[in-house]
Specification:
Layout (H helix, E strand, L loop, with lengths): L4 H7 L3 E9 H6 L4 H10 L3 E3 L3 E2 H8 E10 L4 E10 L5 H15 L3 E5 L6 H6 L3 H7 L1 E4 L7 H5 L1
Antiparallel strand pairs: 1-5, 1-6, 2-3, 4-5, 4-7
Helix pairs in contact: 3-4
C-alpha cells in the first residue's frame, strides 16, 4: 500500500508544514526563487545564533528532510510550503523559532508553522493522491535520493 504525504504527516511524528509568503517584488529584487530560498536556509553559512551554528549546521542537525512546493498568486505573493520532518535535536519551540528567524533574515516574509491545517482544503486533497505528490513536490535532505516518494513515506 502506498502512503501519501498527508497520511505520513498524520501518522508519523515530527512532520510539520512551514508556510512562507513572500512579496514577489521582494523576491525579484533579492533574486530569490523557491529553490534558492531552500538552499539559503539549508546550506548557507549565515548564522543567527552562534551556539546553534550557521544555517547549514542547524539544518543538518535538526531537519531529517522533506519536500517543498511553491505557487504564485495573482495578488503578487509567492507561497512556499516546506513539509519538514524534525530530528528534535533541540526542542520543538527552539526549532520553530530558529526556522522563522532564519527565513526572515534571508528575505522579509510571513511564516506560519503547524500541521496540515495550514494547507488549503484543495492542497490537502492534491497531496492525498500519488500523481499530485510526484509532480508538485521537490524532495530534499534524506528524501532527495529516494527511488520514489511512496517508498520513502511508507
Amino acid at each position: 500500500m502506498n502512503t501519501t504525504l498527508i497520511q505520513s504527516m498524520n501518522t508519523q511524528k515530527g512532520w510539520y508544514v512551514v508556510k512562507v509568503k513572500i512579496n514577489a517584488e521582494d523576491a525579484i529584487q533579492k533574486s530569490i526563487t523557491p529553490s534558492k530560498l531552500y538552499r539559503d536556509l539549508s546550506n548557507s553559512k549565515q548564522s543567527f545564533n552562534s551556539y546553534l551554528g550557521n544555517n547549514r549546521t542547524f539544518w543538518k542537525k535538526n531537519i531529517k528532510g522533506g519536500f517543498y512546493h511553491s505557487s504564485y498568486s495573482d495578488d503578487g505573493l509567492i507561497t512556499i510550503y516546506f513539509f519538514v520532518q524534525f530530528n528534535f535535536d533541540l526542542s520543538e519551540k527552539m526549532i520553530r523559532t530558529n526556522i522563522i528567524v532564519r527565513l526572515k533574515r534571508i528575505i522579509p516574509c510571513e511564516v506560519q508553522i503547524g500541521g496540515i491545517e495550514i494547507l488549503s482544503p484543495h492542497l490537502q486533497q492534491v497531496f492525498q493522491i500519488e500523481y499530485g505528490m510526484e509532480n508538485l513536490l521537490q524532495p530534499f535532505g534524506g528524501y532527495y535520493n529516494s527511488p520514489s516518494l511512496e517508498m520513502t513515506l511508507a
